[in-house]
Amino acid sequence: MNPQFPQPLSAMKEGVLESIIEKVPFGFSLINADYVLESANDAWLKIIQKSENEVIGKNVFDVFPEMKDLLKPILENVKETKQPFYSPEYSWKLMRQGILENVFFNFVYHPIYTDSGRFQHFACVVIEVTDLVETKNKIKNEEERLRLATESSHTATWDLNLKNSEIIHSSYLSKIFGYEDGDAISHQQMRGHLVEYDRINIVEKAYERALKTGKYKYEARIIDKKGNLKWIFTNGKIFRDEENQPIRMLGVMQDITERKTNEILLQESHHQLNTALDATKLGRFDMDYETQHKYNFSPRFLSILGYDADTENLDCKVFEKHIHPKYLKVRNEALKKAKSTGDLYYQTKIILRDGKVKWVEIYGRLLESFEGSKPYVSGTMRDITDLKEFERKIRESEQKYRFLADAIPQIVWIGESDGRLTYFNQATMDYSGKDYNTFLEGNGWLDIVHPNERDENIRLWTDSVTHKIPFSFEHRFRNKNNEYRWFLSRAAPQLDEFGNVTKWVGTSTDIDDMKKQDEHKNNFIKIANHELKTPVTTIKGYVQLLKKMRGNSDDKFLVNSLNTIENQINKLNHLMGELLDISRIESGKLPLHKGDFSLLKLVTETIEDIKAAEQSHHINFELSGAKDIEVFADKDRITQVLNNLLTNAIKYSPNSKEVNVQLFVEGNCAVVSVEDFGIGMDEPELNKIFERFYRVSGEDEVTFPGFGIGLFIVKDIVERHEGKIWVESEKQKGSKFYFSLPLLEK
Q1: Is the distance from CB of 88 to CB of 106 less than 8 angstroms?
Q2: pTM, whole model, 2 decimals?
Q3: Per-residue pLDDT tens for 634-672?
Q4: Contact by Cβ (8 Å): 681, 696
Q5: In sequence order, which residues have a C-beta less than 8 Å from that of residue 111 and are 6 or more positions away?
């Protein structure tokens, strides 16, 4: 049972995701590993002031050549470290409504990798924070005015001699650094309390600027004498002598720990709130608790209703005018409930002025009266039209796919992430004759599985669920007539974005007729092999007798004919053996008679046998890094593997006369390689070469003779020895086959 989520639903989810990305208020684009822009939403295009045709499919450095030296090292570092890069409050000059403005953005470059760890894309997110920066600047200006206004309150003063670093300071400065009132501390002691990072990157740079501008100002962190982390603010001025050399610096210092902490928390809070509002596109309003009149509409609230907040004046009952008549009762019940619970929540349809219908979601909370003011409800409104349409399509899709699942003859089933089966289609009931609830109670479905396969069924299913790997098993199901038929069950996990299993969807296909046909085929092969063996052996015996009697005859035609007949009989015996091996492999009964032997001796003997039979090619052999190599394996079967690879190397290199064989040790395995310089293979053929009945074609697309089962058998033999087989090849340049076997444990 192979649970791939229905493709239309996946496509629909991707469409919804694309729609959401397209409508989000921040810029979003995807850049592939070759730095080519693959997609971008309208917000991103608007920010860079370019059209889609100007950027999509183009290298990002061709679009922004002035950014290459800055941006390329950043992207390369993101790809190498797998860590996103953040660039907060980046300043950019943009022309807006004919005016060149200084606009600020937050940039994020985030790497996207596949489940296998291959790099795929850079996700670029751009959010305009101009208003936030302006607000921060206003706050700083207000802080400066406040500091000057309260200079005599909780403010330390200091006078630093720039020639000898002697400092005179007020007593409050000692308290800031955690010393007792009246303790005198040196300038060097003060610097020692600075956080190292701030000393290097803030204080020292502030001093360098002060030497140029005359103004000394910074905010930095200190660790006071008691071990407390504090924020300090320093504002000073440099005085110079007649030769314009700096001699003194006077200034003030404040402990701004509380303000800085609150500022950081406030910034985080504002950022989170604004991000949430922007992401969800919420409209805000306030409502009188008694009259239920609404006021303080946000622009987004009015735009949802189809109004322009800049040009239209609206009364407090504007929202009520648009509620769909069928939902007035829903609204009234929600308002009534809000009076007792303090929470207002409902969903309703609204009718716009142009007759269009939307779905909106209202949420509010009752805020108690404060200093004589009336209690009121502060709330939000969200346009959920797309969500409602999505839910409708989901319901229709579920109905459609349940209908399709019930209509198909295959057994279809769905399981939860923990492996519990929670759905079976109608075909399951029709086949088993059982009711639906029987299958859902415990492991009721196991009742129809043949007793001989139940334990293995449970083991394989548990292993798949535990390791999140596909499930595949052939087993027999009992039908309503108490007859067992063979089924192939397959299932695969449906994973979420974090790699967690959400569902298992599987199918069980009736393969009983196929199993019987395979059995008939295998029986036929066995019978044919047995019946052919006797006449072939007889013919071979007579040919060998004739060769002894007439092998030295001057009649060359007779001698060549006898040799040809013997070669063809040997090929026929080889083909009969391969067909019998195929039958044994499919039934799982290919015999192995393992023992200890020298792989070096086997390779050299096999090469000599091939040389004696095939004198058209020169076979070179190399033993690397060992005197002898021993393995525990079936000697005859490994000979069969090497013999197949060597004969293939000769057959598929008609225009080359060299074949190279190498034997070496790698880790705890012995490795044999057979290299030819013949027709070679391209990528599609490499993926099929070990499949049953696949045959390679030459340059003129003429297929070489054979059944195409030799490599299939070779692969099975090697894997039954817990080894591996693989190939490297290039079209018209040759192929190099490798197989490995575990070394003999001593």
Answers
A1: yes
A2: 0.34
A3: 888 898 889 889 988 998 888 888 999 999 999 899 999
A4: yes
A5: 78, 79, 82, 83, 84, 119, 121, 122, 123
